[in-house]
From TrEMBL:
Pfam families: MreD. It is found in: Cell inner membrane; Cell membrane. This is Rod shape-determining protein MreD. Involved in formation of the rod shape of the cell. May also contribute to regulation of formation of penicillin-binding proteins. One of its GO terms (cellular component) is plasma membrane. It comes from Candidatus Thiodictyon syntrophicum.
Length: 162
């Protein structure tokens, strides 16, 4: 069994940049409401697999970049992503042993927490409450988790990260 390389940070940050790009990619309004939380899914994966390298600070920084690029209230996405990263880093040893279907449920709960935090920020800033479609990205993110997991795992293996 070969020892994992210490490098490969470019793969981690490159995948996060792709996720951020997918999060800001212009789409028609009717489909934009269903946009999966790519940044959250990618951060969850890297926090699960490399918690010593990707954590709360990385998530907060990615969230700030997402806030700036989407024109959201500064700290809006950063708060949600940092909370998700904290939970994942704290529970990574336990969650890694889960079968993929249980990981999917865990990811779905994390995405729900993220959306609840966003809802709380919307309420605190006096913005109008969203409709039920607001929750659709959490379900879509949970459905996409197995594929995101497999793609990023294979990418990490090719880069020699694990």
């Amino acid at each position: 069994m070969s020892k994992p390389q210490r490098g490969g940070g470019g793969v981690v940050w490159g995948s996060l940049l792709v996720a951020l790009f997918l999060s800001i990619l212009p789409m028609p309004a009717w489909i934009d409401e269903f946009r999966p939380p790519w940044a959250a899914l990618t951060l969850i994966f890297w926090c699960l697999t490399l918690p010593e390298r990707v954590g709360v600070f990385s998530a907060f920084a990615a969230g700030l970049v997402l806030d700036v690029t989407t024109g959201a209230l500064l700290g809006h996405h950063a708060l949600g992503l940092a909370v998700i990263a904290y939970v994942v880093v704290e529970l990574h040893q336990r969650v890694r042993t889960f079968p993929l279907w249980q990981q999917t449920l865990f990811v779905w709960l994390l995405l729900l927490v993220e959306r609840l935090l966003y809802l709380w920020v919307l309420e605190a800033t006096g913005q109008p409450m969203p409709t039920l479609i607001y929750w659709a990205p959490t379900f879509l993110g949970a459905l996409l988790w197995p594929w995101v997991f497999v793609v990023l795992r294979d990418l990490g293996r090719r880069a020699g990260l694990f």
